[in-house]
Design goal:
Blueprint lengths: L10 E2 L5 H13 L4 E3 L7 H13 L9 E6 L6 H15 L4 E6 L36 H13 L3 E7 L3 H10 L6 E5 L7 H9 L3 E5 L23 H10 L3 H11 L3 E2 L6 H8 L8 H8 L10 H9 L8
Parallel strand pairs: 1-2, 2-3, 3-4, 4-5, 5-6, 6-7, 7-8
Helix pairs in contact: 1-2, 2-3, 3-4, 7-8
C-alpha cells in the first residue's frame, strides 16, 4: 500500500492565511517536510500549489517525494460531483494526482456549484437573515463508491475518511471494494481515542491525528479556553525538562510513539523546524502512560457543537 511512504509528520494547512500560505509551504519543504495536508474547505489550495510549484522549480524535491492530501467537501458527496471536486482541487494545487483523498466529514450537504461559491463552506442560503445548513439525501456508501473510481482512474493513489466513528468504520469495511487506507481524527492527550485507533490497527488503517497539540488550534476561534492547553501539564513539562525538548515536541512525540501520523500547523519557520524535529529522542513507558492518562474525551472540533452555534443547525456525528 502507498501509505507506507506517508511521512509521519506533515504540515497541516487549515487556517494558514492565503497571504502566508505559499511561502509557508515553500519554507516547510525547504525545512524537510514532504507531507502536506490540504482541503478544499481551507480555501488556500491555490496558494499551496504555488508553494509546491516554486519548491519543485527550485529543486528542493521531486513531486514523487511529496505526499499531498486533500479532502472531499460535504457539498460534493453525490457521485456525480466527486470527480469534479477532485479535479478542482488538482487544478488549484497544480498537480496531476493526489497521494491521498479523504472524505472530510460523514455529512452530505446540498450541492453548491463551483461558479456560485467556492469553497462553499457550511451554509446553504447565505443571503438569508438566519442561514442554515442544507442536508442532502446521499449515502456514505454512494460517496465511497465514487471515491473508489478515482483510484481506478489513477487520479488518486489512496482514499480514506476523516471524522468517522467506530460504527461508520465497521460499516465502511463491510461494503468497500477498495479499503480505506487512512482515518484522520482529532487526537491529542485530552482526546486520546485509543479504542478507535486500536480498531483501525486491526483493520490495517493508518491514523492521522489532526490538532495534535489540542487547544492551541481553537483558542482564536473561541472553541477552547486558555486554561485547556496540555502544554502546561506537569507530566509534559517534566518530560520536556528531562529530554531538553519543548513541551510541544513532547506532546507531538507522544502521538508518534503511539503509532499515529501527525499534521501540526504553523506558519512560523522556527516552529516548523521544531515540529518536525521529533526523531532524536524517545519518551519512556511511564511518560507515555502518564500523558495518555490526561485523557478527558475533550473534543474541540465537534459538529454537534459548532454547527448549532455557528450555522443554526443541530448536526451531531458523535454520541
Amino acid at each position: 500500500m502507498f501509505t507506507s511512504t506517508m511521512p509521519k509528520v506533515g504540515l497541516g494547512l487549515w487556517k494558514i492565511a492565503n497571504k502566508d500560505c505559499a511561502q509557508t509551504v515553500y519554507d516547510a519543504i525547504a525545512a524537510g517536510y514532504r507531507h502536506l495536508d490540504s482541503a478544499c474547505d481551507y480555501g488556500n489550495e491555490k496558494e499551496v500549489g504555488q508553494g509546491i510549484a516554486k519548491a519543485l522549480k527550485d529543486g528542493l524535491c521531486t513531486r514523487e517525494e511529496l505526499w499531498v492530501t486533500s479532502k472531499l467537501w460535504n457539498t460534493y458527496h453525490a457521485p456525480e460531483h466527486v470527480k469534479p471536486a477532485l479535479e478542482k482541487s488538482l487544478e488549484d494545487l497544480g498537480l496531476d494526482y493526489l497521494d491521498l483523498y479523504l472524505i472530510h466529514f460523514p455529512i452530505a450537504q446540498t450541492f453548491i456549484p463551483f461558479a456560485e461559491r467556492y469553497p462553499p463552506g457550511w451554509l446553504f442560503n447565505t443571503d438569508d437573515e438566519s442561514p442554515t445548513m442544507s442536508l442532502a439525501a446521499v449515502s456514505l456508501q454512494q460517496t465511497w463508491q465514487a471515491m473508489e473510481k478515482l483510484v481506478d482512474e489513477k487520479r488518486v493513489k489512496e482514499i480514506g475518511v476523516c471524522n468517522y466513528n467506530s460504527a461508520l468504520i465497521h460499516d465502511l469495511m463491510s461494503y468497500s471494494r477498495i479499503k480505506p487506507s487512512v482515518l484522520q481524527i482529532e487526537s491529542h492527550p485530552y482526546n486520546t481515542q485509543q479504542r478507535l485507533i486500536s480498531m483501525c490497527k486491526n483493520y490495517n488503517i493508518d491514523v492521522v491525528a489532526f490538532s495534535p497539540l489540542g487547544a492551541l488550534s481553537y483558542l482564536e476561534l473561541g472553541m477552547a479556553g486558555e486554561n485547556e492547553t496540555v502544554l502546561e501539564q506537569h507530566v509534559v513539562q517534566a518530560a520536556a525538562k528531562r529530554l531538553r525538548k519543548t513541551p510541544a515536541q513532547v506532546v507531538l512525540r507522544w502521538n508518534i510513539q503511539r503509532g499515529c501520523t501527525i499534521i501540526p500547523k504553523s506558519s512560523k519557520l522556527a516552529r516548523l523546524k521544531e515540529n518536525i524535529a521529533l526523531f532524536d529522542f524517545e519518551l519512556s513507558e511511564q511518560e507515555m502512560a502518564a500523558i495518555s492518562a490526561l485523557n478527558q474525551n475533550r473534543r474541540f472540533n465537534d459538529p454537534g457543537d459548532f454547527c448549532l452555534s455557528a450555522f443554526n443547525t443541530l448536526h451531531p456525528i458523535y454520541d
